[in-house]
Q: What sequence folds into this?
């Protein structure tokens, strides 16, 4: 063969190393009027590019031309090679019979090394068709010849293909061995596209072995590699969607699959890939609770697979089709028979999905009362409980639980559910991201429901409480894995804050969004989230099972814990206290959810003065909520404190609005276990507290300035709080009075001036994350107490007369203090003893102790000092924190819910970087107590991010509130805390101290105390 031939033939490996360059060079060869042999190679290269990355119709035209030119050149080996490429393209275009015929001719024309390459490509086609036995046979014949010829590239491809076939058959160990061998070979080549494909395949292997974080990381790495090559990634999308579904992210998988299908249709891409994308979209739609969408996608996929003669895939698509029909309530004998037939075919194929089909057949049969048929199918499905990846074992335990229920064995049901949920617990703890842990619980929802049902029948209230706790707020049982010290992640979060701040400023200044900034913000969000999802769990669960006796001992005789369990759509109240657990039936969950939404709408209206007429309507809705949620249990709450443990779907209920709870010491907890952990959490030594004031609040965050004055800290800076000392609503001033508070110098409802009409301490709670700034504060800075040091931005008020200029940060130090005398001299305040005999009406002896403790360790961050890195440093390990800032809840991505700081949003992902979040934290911002309900019964949001990190108590708000009305509530709350009260006690007293008007009452109801501090 000549040197010129060698040069042209180099284009074939190049198409998988640098595809676009190979395409350009092949087009250049054709432009030079080459001989038939060279032209055949060039057309084949263009055909491969079009087949894999473009229009299959163009691919077929080029490949047929390449075949004809190879025949003209009288080169049987060249013709055999082209026939194999053509066969792959024909199969991908849905012409299976023609494709297999092309392979027959190719195998006959080729010899030795060439025939081995043809056999490899036919093995690939057998895999595409789901005929795995034939695929393994052809690749088995090809690999020794390729190795003997020292063909590194094709040997690596063959090993990768064999590993992929092994994975389809559930042989993970064999696949790992082949992937490892192939990777060693790829490292010796420059085949960048093939290397990316190898990384993608390793991601698939990680997924099949149950390692979701590794799978996501590897698939993302493969996507980056493909992006550098400029090639589409339809197969990668299919695999990524499978992983997303296993991680509980089915809506995202559906969106990605549909987008990829549209892109594929736009370029006239492979029909085989289109069918596979439709199948994955159908599965995602079913898991996302969209059975009709699933039906449509699955039915089309079945037709396409049937036309392509891809029985393996057609059978999987029929399984999804039957599942979607069952989800729409179409249970019938025909459906049982169809599911059983699918299960038999999948078992014959050796497909891992066979137990799912048997479980489906058994479940439908049970619904029809066909117990004998159900037992037969469920027994087959139950065999998978003893081996395989976690989700396959869970399928087996679910089948076993249904068998036990059909047999009337409550004990058998509970044992199967326990074993299945243990498997899921082990799987969840391999996930580092709290979002994945929460969403993964959806896989165990059926087991949890079966266990609760069986415990109610056989074990009474105590057993129902145990199983309610077994599956409630499990994501809080262990802290999330700390995000790694990943420079790319850290720089991404910094860039995200900057872009988000610029986008917010543009919306505020011009009133219109800036599309370029919003696109970049979304890109950075995706990058941050992606890197977070890659984290692998390292912390096992606490290993402690919930102990009802321990709970009752901690409650004692005075405290009641009310846990709400939902069975068959009805609320069951488990009332714990006085050494026993009692059960009461209340209303329907759906009705309670609707009523809660009405209440939330009413509270939003009451945040504006002038809506007083709605107050009776909101109170009446509160009474209806009580009947639906507590029922007869409301009459048995006693007179002491109450802890409410609601299910995730009731997280928006303002519990203090319920008449039976309105005057009580009331706290809310995601679970009884979480409450016990909070009770056992000790505060950090030192009593350090942090006060943070974010920008743009209608009140200017007035309570922070007043609290700083109370604790002896001077505040100031750009954006300082208007008014003079003692002039702000509820300012302690000289006497420390709170409007309406007992013992206050200016007590009584009339002490608070009129409220602005639109001051709400929040941004808009939209799913796209856009926040609308509130009115900017006006007025002058003021001194608020016996402070010795100012904290804030460039416009700080001057310090005491004996202060001298400080360091380059612009702070001031008392005369004689040397730089570096303390770790952070400009933020730790050493104040003189409180000159007031009585702090806000608190008993002098108690006030002196708390005042000395707080003043000596109080940090105030405002103005330019309230930047995210600084705020996080101060919050870490603090005894208490109070943050006044705009809050924005992101229903679409709850871990991007945020508090607005001087340099941009402080998001939940930021809080998860804390070694220990503050022991107590007060969030005087609206929507900070809003959550996204995900998984089986999990909540994602700011409060639930704090609780596993060391926070024992949180005060937060579930609705928009009036900025000015928040100030007296917060001051009264701190008054109670200074007196040594818990958050729940102090919040109860603070509500009682407010003026008795609609705005203030609504503000009080909107805030809840979470935890036990």
A:
């Amino acid at each position: 063969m000549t040197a010129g031939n060698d040069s042209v033939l180099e284009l074939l490996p190049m198409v998988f190393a640098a595809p676009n360059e190979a395409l350009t060079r092949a087009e250049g060869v054709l432009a030079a009027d080459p001989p038939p042999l060279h032209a055949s190679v060039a057309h084949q290269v263009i055909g491969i590019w079009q087949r894999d990355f473009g229009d299959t119709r163009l691919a077929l035209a080029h490949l047929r031309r390449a075949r004809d030119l190879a025949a003209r050149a009288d080169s049987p080996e060249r013709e055999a090679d082209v026939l194999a490429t053509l066969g792959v393209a024909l199969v991908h275009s849905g012409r299976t019979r023609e494709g297999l015929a092309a392979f027959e001719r190719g195998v006959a024309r080729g010899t030795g090394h060439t025939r081995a390459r043809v056999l490899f490509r036919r093995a690939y086609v057998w895999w595409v068709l789901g005929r795995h036995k034939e695929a393994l046979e052809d690749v088995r014949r090809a690999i020794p010849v390729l190795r003997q010829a020292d063909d590194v590239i094709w040997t690596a491809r063959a090993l990768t293909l064999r590993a992929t076939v092994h994975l389809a058959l559930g042989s993970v160990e064999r696949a790992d061995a082949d992937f490892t061998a192939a990777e060693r070979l790829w490292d010796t080549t420059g085949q960048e596209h093939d290397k990316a494909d190898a990384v993608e395949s390793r991601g698939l292997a990680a997924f099949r072995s149950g390692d979701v974080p590794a799978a996501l990381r590897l698939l993302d790495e493969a996507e980056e590699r493909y992006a550098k090559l400029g090639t589409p990634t339809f197969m990668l999308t299919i695999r990524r969607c499978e992983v997303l579904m296993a991680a509980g992210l089915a809506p995202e998988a559906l969106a990605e699959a549909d987008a990829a299908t549209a892109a594929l249709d736009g370029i006239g891409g492979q029909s085989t890939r289109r069918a596979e994308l439709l199948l994955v979209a159908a599965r995602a739609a079913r898991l996302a609770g969209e059975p009709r969408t699933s039906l449509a996608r699955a039915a089309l996929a079945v037709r396409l697979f049937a036309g392509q003669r891809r029985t393996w895939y057609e059978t999987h698509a029929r399984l999804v089709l039957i599942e979607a029909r069952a989800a729409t309530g179409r249970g019938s004998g025909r459906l049982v028979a169809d599911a059983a037939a699918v299960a038999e075919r999948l078992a014959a194929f050796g497909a891992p999905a066979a137990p799912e089909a048997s479980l489906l057949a058994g479940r439908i049969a049970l619904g029809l009362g066909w117990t004998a048929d159900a037992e037969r199918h469920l027994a087959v499905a139950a065999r998978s409980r003893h081996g395989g990846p976690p989700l396959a074992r869970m399928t087996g335990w679910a089948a076993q639980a249904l068998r036990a229920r059909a047999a009337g064995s409550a004990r058998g049901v509970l044992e199967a559910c326990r074993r299945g949920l243990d498997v899921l617990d082990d799987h969840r703890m391999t996930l580092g991201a709290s979002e994945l842990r929460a969403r993964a619980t959806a896989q165990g929802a059926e087991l949890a429901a079966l266990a609760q049902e069986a415990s109610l029948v056989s074990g009474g209230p105590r057993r129902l409480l145990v199983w309610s706790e077994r599956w409630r707020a499990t994501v809080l049982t262990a802290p999330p894995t700390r995000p790694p010290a990943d420079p790319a992640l850290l720089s991404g979060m910094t860039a995200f804050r900057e872009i988000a701040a610029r986008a917010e400023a543009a919306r505020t200044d011009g009133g219109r969004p800036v599309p370029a900034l919003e696109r970049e913000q979304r890109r950075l969000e995706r990058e941050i989230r992606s890197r977070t999802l890659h984290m692998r769990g390292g912390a096992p669960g606490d290993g402690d099972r919930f102990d009802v006796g321990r709970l009752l001992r901690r409650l004692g005789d005075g405290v009641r814990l009310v846990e709400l369990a939902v069975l068959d759509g009805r609320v069951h109240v488990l009332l714990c206290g006085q050494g026993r657990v009692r059960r009461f039936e209340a209303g329907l969950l759906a009705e309670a959810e609707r009523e809660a939404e009405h209440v939330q709408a009413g509270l939003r209206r009451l945040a504006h003065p002038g809506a007083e007429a709605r107050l009776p309507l909101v109170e009446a809705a509160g009474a209806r909520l009580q009947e639906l949620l507590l029922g007869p249990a409301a009459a048995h709450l006693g007179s002491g404190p109450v802890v409410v443990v609601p299910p995730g779907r009731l997280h928006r209920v303002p519990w203090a609005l319920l008449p039976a709870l309105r005057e009580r010491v009331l706290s809310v907890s995601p679970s009884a276990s979480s409450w016990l952990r909070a009770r056992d959490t000790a505060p950090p030594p030192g009593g350090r507290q942090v006060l943070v004031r974010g920008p743009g609040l209608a009140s200017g965050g007035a309570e922070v300035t007043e609290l700083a004055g109370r604790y002896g800290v001077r505040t100031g800076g750009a954006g300082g709080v208007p008014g003079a000392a003692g002039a702000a609503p509820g300012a302690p001033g000289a006497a420390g009075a709170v409007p309406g508070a007992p013992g206050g110098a200016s007590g009584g409802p009339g002490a608070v001036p009129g409220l602005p009409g639109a001051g709400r301490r929040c941004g808009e709670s939209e799913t796209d994350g856009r926040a609308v700034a509130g009115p900017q504060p006006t007025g002058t800075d003021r001194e608020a107490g016996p402070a010795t040091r100012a904290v804030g931005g460039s416009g700080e008020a001057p310090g005491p007369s004996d202060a001298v200029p400080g360091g380059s940060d612009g702070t001031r130090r008392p005369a004689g203090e040397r730089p570096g005398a303390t770790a952070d001299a400009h933020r730790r305040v050493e104040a003189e003893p409180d000159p007031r005999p009585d702090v806000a009406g608190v008993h002098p002896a108690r006030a002196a102790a708390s005042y000395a403790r707080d003043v000596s360790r109080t940090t105030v961050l405002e103005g330019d000092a309230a930047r995210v890195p600084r705020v996080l440093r101060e919050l870490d390990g603090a005894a208490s924190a109070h943050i006044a800032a705009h809050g924005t809840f992101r229903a679409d991505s709850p871990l991007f819910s945020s508090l607005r700081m001087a340099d941009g949003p402080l998001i939940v992902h930021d809080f998860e970087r804390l070694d220990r979040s503050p022991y107590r934290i007060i969030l005087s911002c609206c929507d900070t107590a809003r959550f996204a309900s995900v998984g089986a019964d999990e909540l994602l949001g700011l409060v639930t991010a704090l609780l596993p990190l060391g926070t024992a108590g949180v005060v937060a708000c579930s609705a928009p509130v009036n900025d000015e009305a928040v100030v007296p509530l917060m001051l009264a709350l701190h008054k109670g805390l200074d007196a040594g009260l818990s958050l729940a006690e102090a919040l109860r007293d603070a509500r009682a101290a407010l003026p008795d008007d609609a705005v203030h009452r609504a503000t009080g109801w909107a805030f809840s105390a979470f935890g036990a501090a």
In short: DSSP finds 40 helices and 20 strands in the chain. The two ends are 83 Å apart (CA to CA). Residues 716-760, 763-855 have pLDDT under 50 and may be disordered. Residues 487-510 form the longest helix (24 residues).
